[in-house]
Each structure stands twice: as C-alpha cells, then as structure tokens.
Design goal:
This protein has about 160 residues and is mainly alpha-helical. The chain is about 55% helix and about 5% strand. The protein is built from 7 helices and 2 strands, in the order αβαβααααα.
Length: about 160
C-alpha cells in the first residue's frame, strides 16, 4: 500500500526531504494553535509515516500544522497527492547528482544569518546546524551556491525551540 501526502503536511514532507539528503535529525512538535488539536498519538503516526526516530538533539524542529482529520487523510491512499515514493525518488535524484555546495555566503546571506543570530539568539551550534541544513536545501535545489531562500528555510527549521 502506498501512502500519500496531503497539502497540509507539505512542510513536514519538505523537512523529511531536507533531513534525508543532509543526514539530519527531525523532531516534530505539535502546533500551539488550539483549533488544530494534535495529540501525541498523531505525532507518533507522522513520525512512523516518515520514519523519524526519537531524538534528544534534533537538527530540524518542525511544528506540525495539521488537524487530526487531515492527518488521517495524509496516511490514507489517494491519487490526488504526491506519494512518499515520489518524494524519495526526488531525494535519490539529488543524492545521485552529488552536488558540491560552496558554503561561502554572499553579503545578503551573511546579513540574513547575522540578523537571525541576533533576533533569535542563536548560538554557535545553531549556526553550524543552520549551515548543514542550508547545504542540504541547496542540494535539493540542484544549486552549487547558497542563496538567501536556502538560508531563510534553514533558519525556519531552527527557530522553533522546545
């Protein structure tokens, strides 16, 4: 049986892609919106669906914005959405290309990262993980350079703290 991804879970799917290509660890966190009640069982279902192992020191924090009803739709087959096999094929293609990303940041990327460090009070460990995540995102984009959108996405994955 193939499982499919619903639009509400696209962000988790993207985090899955980035984690797989970059050998990074993901921790799913329930959304704090009271209208989207996420139970521990719901998080467990998503973790199992994507194959995320429990970790104490995650590289990527992903807040889950998905209702229980949408979660049930996510793990039920449907031809309307991308399958996990399609996501894995995209990861395999990026991995096969073995793109070497130049980690040198241009001035815009440096400014973006510096602002995030100041505003979000990131430490050195956070910056190092952001760079690892950024590299994985660039690889998925088939880019040898790091662009501001790569940094911004990586910052997003580290901005949620427990």
């Amino acid at each position: 049986m193939k499982y499919n991804l619903i639009a509400a879970a696209v962000n988790v799917s993207r985090a899955y892609e980035v984690a797989k290509i970059g050998n990074l660890k993901v921790k799913l966190i329930a959304c704090s919106n009271p209208e989207l009640i996420i139970t521990e069982r719901d998080l467990e279902l998503l973790n199992n669906f994507y194959g995320f192992e429990p970790v104490d020191d995650p590289d990527i924090f992903m807040e889950v914005f998905i209702s229980h009803d949408d979660l049930v739709s996510t793990i039920n087959p449907s031809n309307r959405f991308e399958t996990i096999d399609q996501v894995n094929a995209r990861i395999a293609a990026a991995d096969f290309m073995q793109i070497k990303v130049d980690r040198k940041l241009n001035s815009i990327c440096r400014t973006l990262l510096k602002t995030a460090v100041q505003k979000l009070q990131f430490g050195l460990n956070d910056v190092l993980k952001i760079m690892d995540i950024t590299e994985a995102i660039a690889m998925l984009s088939h880019s040898t350079e790091i662009f501001p959108e790569h940094i911004a996405e990586a910052i997003h994955y580290r901005s949620i703290k427990l």
